[in-house]
Amino acid sequence: MTRDEWRSKLKARRAAISEPMQRQASHDVAARVAERAQQSSGYAAIFLSFANELNTTPAIEALWQANMATVVPVLHPFSPGHLLFLKLTPDTRLTKNRYGIEEPQLRVDNVVPLSKIGCMFMPLVGFDAYGNRLGMGGGYYDRTLAAWRAGQLPQLQPIGIAYDEQYVEQLPIQAWDVAIPEVITPTRHWSFKHEPKFS
């Protein structure tokens, strides 16, 4: 299957998960996220879930309860296709971006550089046995992680968040795709030590 075919199939698989299972999954992932974040230093970056993505609200609350300073992605206003990361607190006012995803209102004093982020929990549409990640197709996280892949951000630890149903044995990937070393699902903390395979 092509990447777009996989994307459609996995989105449908994710959308078919029942509401009770979604709620349970979000709480199961929250505990794993908080535990993992406390093993690293620096800010914890996490996304504000959208559409049928696994609900990250319980995970964010678990990070706050663990006294973890938290940031979330915001579309870069001057550099198309790139992200900034802004501090998130219980009092942060949110607004919807052009994709309909909530994000903090942009304030320069709340921007946190990648060099101060320890764990980066990121969304995905699918992942495979080699840590290859299939996103929504915009390339935002591939661009964000380019410096990490080049060895320039050794403290940064990219970690996917997904339902178990989003796993497949192998995805078709491109040269610019960035494989990630970890994925957290409701039932498992995946760790990938394989070199990515191109198909």
How would you describe the overall organization of this protein?
Helices cover 25% and strands 21% of the residues. Helix 2 runs parallel beside helix 3. It starts with a helix and ends in an 8-residue tail after the last strand. The longest helix has 19 residues, at 19-37. The chain has a seven-stranded mixed sheet. The model is unreliable at 195-199 (pLDDT under 50). The protein has five helices and eleven strands, in the order ααβαβββββββααβββ. The protein is α/β, with parallel strands linked by helices and 199 residues long. The protein has one domain: 3-Layer(aba) Sandwich (Rossmann fold). It has helices spanning 3-15, 19-37, 57-65, 140-144, 146-149; strands at residues 43-45, 70-75, 83-88, 94-96, 102-104, 117-122, 126-127, 133-134, 157-161, 182-184, 189-191.
Condensed summary:
With 199 residues, the chain is an alpha/beta fold. Helix content is 25%, strand content 21%.
Main β-sheet, spatial strand arrangement: 3-2-1-6-9-10-11
The largest pleated sheet is described as: 7 strands, mixed
Morphology call = globular
Question: Based on helices, strands and strand pairing, what is the structural class?
Answer: alpha/beta
Fraction of helical residues: 25-40%
**H/E element order:** HHEHEEEEEEEHHEEE
Strand % is: 15-25%
CATH architecture: 3-Layer(aba) Sandwich
Uncertain stretches of 5 or more adjacent residues: 195-199
Mean pLDDT: 92
